[in-house]
Amino acid sequence: MSKNIIILAIESSCDDTSAAVIRDGVILSNCIANQTAHAEYGGVVPEVASRAHQVNIIPVVDLALKKAGIEKSELNAIAFTRGPGLLGSLIVGVSFAKALAMGLGIPMIEVNHMNAHVLAHFAEDPKPNFPFLCLTVSGGHTQIVHVRDYLDMEVIGTTIDDAAGEAFDKTGKMLGLPYPAGPHIDRLAKDGNPVFPFTEPRIKDLDFSFSGLKTSILYYLQKRVRENPDFVKENLNDICASVQTRIVSILMNKLKKATIQTGIKEVAIAGGVSANSGLRNTLQEIGKEEGWNTFIPAFQYCTDNAGMIAVVAHQKFLKGEFVGQDVTPMARYAM
């Protein structure tokens, strides 16, 4: 196996600009610039995000190289997120990668953002054994992935409408919580009890649905507020606990079904929602009951980050999977 393979990875799929450096499969740096401007809008504004990427990308790449102690001349390849994501944001990252690779005369590696969330588990120990199941949950995606090898994955369950992360954020908006609402709901739920009845949708096979849950939460809150205008204020912790418990149960019930269908006991979670304490704790509890080997990524590898892009890029480098300067970003990019 070749040694001293050094790759710079760039992630710009949504509103976080990130750069990482990996050498021989070991991440040397993983730097992220967050965008706070979207909070006042209650969601990510694509045009605002792409403009912020233009401002952040050079400083973030420079910081990643400095933290890793690597000069640009030492790089063997440039990796980047090709998709899925916001097209304007992806264009910034892809264009920068193309320009830098051309200037340095080195190859490029394109990475699927969702594959990268799965392989975030290989950024540090402990690492799952193949094959394993990965529940990948974020603001834009909810998937159960059958992972046979580093670059051999199959989506066996996905959302037919909204993602789990979106359910958290839209519920938070109903409750008057800041964006992104997921962490706020998680924090408030710790001091509440799941006493309010939000039903679990009946979706066949391993697919998910969260649009109906959002609607039921909205109608329930509207009814109770008509009866008592201070209902949300007086019951905020319990509402958050009830919402979080139901979202987690929807996710875990499908994951349990997937382990039964596949017979796989190596089970992981990934994506931004995998930072949720309710999901993390429930996975560990059910894992013990079911005899699973469970894997949860470190917090820095849950949200969008270039470290996970770098992990995929290293595996692709070993297989010689490079792309040319004619590569273009893909807002919709299936596994």
Topology:
Blueprint: E1 6-11, E2 17-23, E3 26-33, H1 46-68, E4 77-83, H2 87-104, E5 108-112, H3 113-119, E6 132-137, E7 142-149, E8 152-158, H4 164-174, H5 182-189, H6 211-227, H7 231-262, E9 266-270, H8 277-290, E10 293-295, H9 306-318
Parallel strand pairs: 1-4, 4-5, 6-9, 9-10
Antiparallel strand pairs: 1-2, 2-3, 6-7, 7-8
Helix pairs in contact: 1-2, 3-9, 4-6, 4-7, 5-7, 7-8
Summarize this entry quickly.
43% of the residues lie in helices and 19% in strands.
What do these coordinates show?
- There is one protein chain.
- This protein folds into 2 domains: 6-119 and 302-318, ATPase, nucleotide binding domain (Nucleotidyltransferase, domain 5, 2-Layer Sandwich); 129-297, 2-Layer Sandwich (Nucleotidyltransferase, domain 5).
- With 335 residues, it is an alpha/beta fold.
- Helix 3 packs across helix 9.
- It has helices at residues 46-68, 87-104, 113-119, 164-174, 182-189, 211-227, 231-262, 277-290, 306-318, and strands spanning 6-11, 17-23, 26-33, 77-83, 108-112, 132-137, 142-149, 152-158, 266-270, 293-295.
- It contains 9 helices and 10 strands.
- 46% of the residues are buried.
